[in-house]
Amino acid sequence: MPHVVAENLVKTFRIAERRPGIWGAFRGLVHRRYRTVRALDGVSFSVEPGELIGYIGPNGAGKSTTVKVLSGILVPDGGSCRVLGYVPWRQRIETVRRIGVVFGQRTQLWWDLPVVESFQLLRDIYRVPRGQHRQSLDELIELLDLAPLLDVPVRQLSLGQRMRCDLAASLLHAPELLFLDEPTIGLDAVSKLAVRDFIRRLNRERGVTVILTTHDMDDIEELCSRVMVIAEGRILSDGPLESLRAQVTRERWLIVDLVDADAQVADPDAEVIRRDGERVCLRFDPSRTRPAELIARVTANHPIRDLFVQDPPIEQVIARLYEERQS
Amino acid sequence: MLDSIRVYGRYVSISMRSQMQYKASFLMMATGQLLITAIEFLGLWALFARFGNLRGWTLPEVALFYGMINVAFAVADAVARGFDTFPAMVKSGEFDRLLLRPRSTTLQVAARELQLMRVGRLAQGLVVLLWAATALDVTWTPQKVLFAVATMLAGTCMFYGLFVLQATLAFWTIESLEIMATVTYGGVETAQYPLVIYQRWFRRFFTFVVPLACVNYFPVLAILDRPDPLGAPVALQWIAPAGGFVFLFLSLQVWKIGVRHYRSTGS
Amino acid sequence: MIAYWAILSARFRALLQYRVAAAAGFGTQLFWGLIRVMIFGAFYQSSNVAQPMSYEDVVSYVWLGQAMILLVLFRPDVEVQAMIRSGTVAYEMLRPLDVYSVWFTRAVAMRTAPVLLRAVPMFIVAGLLLGLKAPASPQAACLWALSTATAVLLSAAIGTLMTVSMLWTIAGDGIGRLVPAATFILSGMIIPLPLFPDWAQPVLNFLPFRGLADVPFRLYTGHIPPTEGVAALAHQLAWTVALIALGRWLLARGTRRMVVQGG
Question: What's the CA angle centered on B174, arms B173 and B176, to 5 degrees?
């Protein structure tokens, strides 16, 4: 049974419009004008158990709205959905008992208390049997290296430490499905790697289904086999990372470091898209031009220090996707 | 159910311990509150020294009104803190986190915080109440004592209901509507004196809209064995405290409507 | 000097913008005023004994209190409080302006614009409908105006003193709670000071708090006759100067303490 089935979710918000100027402010007091925003405009997808999905989109695209609907916080205006077999907004308590949600910017721990007390309080709230709780906790403490943090009040933790504790807190009740909203935001490089590693292990070794909302493309590249792209309330793309790339563009990049920083590079089959002093970035279509041939031509005309061929960064791919959507 | 009580208990102990951390601050503020409310009562005493009586009511009688409403309010103030600070919770989005837990939101908000500092006002209210009880010409049967306790409990529930309503407003508007605070604190001030001394529209408001009279005026009349100068039947005096419980119940229903509204419009 | 004026006028203009907040509190105050008037009315009906103040004077006193309430409600200067908590107050100390004067000027500004916004409508409503009488005489009006101006300075001095006390965190917290409430009562805002017991009068007359409300109000109603007006004003002024001096001295000590501890 799929863990999540969403069909045609629709959600509109009414936002009061602010009028400019003083006169506008007065009129605004008397007669409010509203703008309707379609945060979700027919969102459909399904998630099988054990998947690790990336959910990306520009700000305001509908990512958090989707998570809120799936977790039962928000009631949609149309469409249907089932999470672990429940209708989340109608069976809120049953649903949230079996899912975990982590917000990158807001902690679910109690600010003034030592971390371990938050864990205990959550045990009572989720009604986790003591034995099970003890076992989960011990495992999580080891996996996330939380032992030195247990007696520290949450307000004294660094961002990276807090995120690790939040991750543990969200897993204490052994949820089958985990929503992670920007878990690596603001973290230093070491913490990011630790968090990513943990998520990967969680998914591979324990089969926890993970839906990861993020702006960090490295997260996507490192973790997700499947990516959903949402913009303006609609799903633009849903599938493996590779096909996303392929869907938008058939291109690869050749990057060369020239010996002569002023040399002009031109080639009939390639387009210079960026230039930083001696570093030139060329874009070409690998189906029309073989990389080896392009390299040969470029190096014949210009002595080079170094070169590499790569796929365009995922941001570029996404940006291209939005642009095409606009037109 | 028992389970929810245990969770509530845990929250309470956490709140208390977290506040105990700031011992010096707590002591100072509790003492300060005690002093201030004491001076307020001294003001009342001074007025009685000058005027002798308040439309036929003596100081001990007025002190009974004063003590009972202050105790009721102090307890509500301490216990309803979660609702009192609720608007900030909606603003910061923390309420979403409550919705993500497999517990009723009412329980979670109610349990969130306990304000120990209010113990200053509570202590003062108790002192005044006990003084009034001894100074009055009233035979304190067990029945009357129980009734007094029930009345104060009803008063606490009524004020709790006001806090809940105030918090529910946060679902609709960002501005905190001053009116709720006005009615709450104004209500305490009003009920410190027998309701008869006020003008008609005022009495009506605090009998039928906010049942202040039900949790203070009428019950105290019953304890004092005094008939209502305004002619309400004696039987009413004894069942009046029920109004406080009903008010709280109604407030919680409005709160549930508020939660539903929040979940359909987001924030 | 120009710098202080600039600060003053900037704060004044900023505070004028809080119109909504001004409107919201107005209803509350009408409510409070009405309750107090009704309570006093009931008391006065209960006794034929001559009282230190007539009922009409008490009614005016109550409404004057509601009009000028912001002079007696002490809220900490939020910006300064934030500065102290975060430690950036150290930068304030490094600026070429005299810190006490800056804080004092801000306190004065906080007591002019909001007070005006509250007082004007309250005077109109209470004067027309609720029993607030006109000043007892032209001299009374004059003295009242002078006394109110001095009350602003006195209030600012107390407020700045409280702000300075925030440099000492725990004590500052406690003072921040106790002083406003004590001030409120001892200035006559709950019960007019003359109605307090006779034995309390010397103490109340000595303390500075009567200068915030009791003195200007009683000059207005003529309860303090114009002949005693100068003495009353002198009392206000003397305390203002004393509290400013105390504030400056405490600030100096607090600054040194911060510098020594490293902020």
Answer: 90
